TrEMBL record:
Protein name: DUF1211 domain-containing protein
Matches recorded under Pfam families: TMEM175
GO molecular function: potassium channel activity; proton channel activity
Species per Swiss-Prot/TrEMBL record: Levilactobacillus bambusae
Membrane topology: Multi-pass membrane protein
Location relative to the cell: Membrane
Top-level division of the source organism's lineage: Bacteria
Keyword S-adenosyl-L-methionine annotated: no
Region annotation Disordered: where it falls in the sequence: 273-292
Entry keywords, A to Z: Ion channel, Ion transport, Membrane, Potassium, Potassium channel, Potassium transport, Transmembrane, Transmembrane helix, Transport
Residues annotated as transmembrane: 15-34, 46-65, 86-103, 115-138, 159-184
Catalytic activity, reaction form: K(+)(in) = K(+)(out)
Length: 292
């Protein structure tokens, strides 16, 4: 069967995007300023520059991850999406330059420029992701799941508001604003990977349980996901003590029912699927939830 032009274009766009992002990360590390005076290296500046590079790396890597998830959902892309993706890559390619400027001279202008670029990149990618999601799905439930796969449980409206606030803060206190710009990408980088793993796990939940989860607020989803992680960690610490495992399960199931309206039978069915999905060779190790 002949592959469509749009499908070929999508494949080439994927390869092009990956190459551009790899080059951006390479340029960022090559442009790290290293000052040597009379044979002595300015280690304070060097470590500060490396720290800012790590943050920018997390920012770019997180966007690459979201970009890969979004584009993986579709097989073909129209010209509109190609143009938006090129604009996104154009803005992203400015990251090394503004990172270097902010590293060399942390003043209001450089920090505000970095923040403005940050906001533009996030805005263009948000629009790009929306187009991709709407291209693939028509029902709101699947759209919502796809957005969660891309962004995790983050509230993007709140994120944009936060970036705008930090840009304003940079006008008065650039160094304090810089600290916030350092925190956001690192936090997003690690939480996005963790949320993606949780979404894969939650996809094993029975349909009714998934519906209950989808109806939760963003805060409740985060709380429920944290509760799952704590339960699994607790079971791993307990080991083979079935009595303690049962007590841990009873506590978890009770909280899931009371706080999130997910019944014990739904949770129990999900954990059985979870064991098959996560630990195919150790089904009986993690938990023995109920005797029924």
């Amino acid at each position: 069967m002949e592959v469509s032009i749009m499908k070929k274009l999508k494949e080439r766009l994927d390869a092009f995007s990956d190459a551009i992002i790899a080059i951006i990360i390479t340029i960022m590390v090559l442009e790290l300023p290293v000052t040597v005076h009379n044979g002595n290296v300015n280690f304070v500046q060097l470590f500060q520059s490396i720290g800012i590079y790590i943050v920018s790396f997390c920012f770019v890597a997180d966007l690459w991850y979201q970009h890969a998830i979004a584009f993986d959902a579709v097989d073909e892309v129209p010209n509109k999406i190609v143009i938006k993706d090129l604009i996104f890559l154009l803005l992203l390619s400015l990251t090394p330059t503004l990172t270097r400027l902010m590293t060399q001279d942390t003043v209001r202008q450089t920090v505000m420029l970095y923040g403005t670029l940050y906001l533009l990149i996030e805005g263009v990618f948000r629009s790009l992701a929306q187009d991709l999601v709407h291209l693939k799905f028509t029902d709101k439930a699947n759209m919502k799941k796809m957005y969660q796969s891309i962004y995790g449980n983050r509230d993007m409206g709140r994120m944009f508001g936060m970036i705008l606030t930090i840009i304003v803060l940079a006008y008065f206190y650039p160094k304090i604003a810089l600290v916030f710009f350092l925190i956001i990408p690192i936090r997003s980088f690690f939480t996005n990977a963790l949320n993606s793993e949780e979404m894969q796990d939650l996809s094993q939940m029975p349909i009714e349980g998934q519906k209950s989860f989808d109806q939760m607020s963003g805060a409740d989803k985060r709380k429920y996901s944290q509760m799952i992680r704590r339960y699994i960690q607790r079971v791993h610490r307990i080991g083979h003590d079935q009595e303690k495992q049962q007590a841990a399960w009873n506590e978890f199931a009770k909280r899931a029912q009371q706080e999130f309206n997910i019944s014990e039978s739904q949770s129990n069915a999900w954990f059985r699927q979870y064991q098959k999905y996560r630990q195919p060779n150790q089904r009986n190790r993690s938990s023995r939830h109920s005797q029924s």
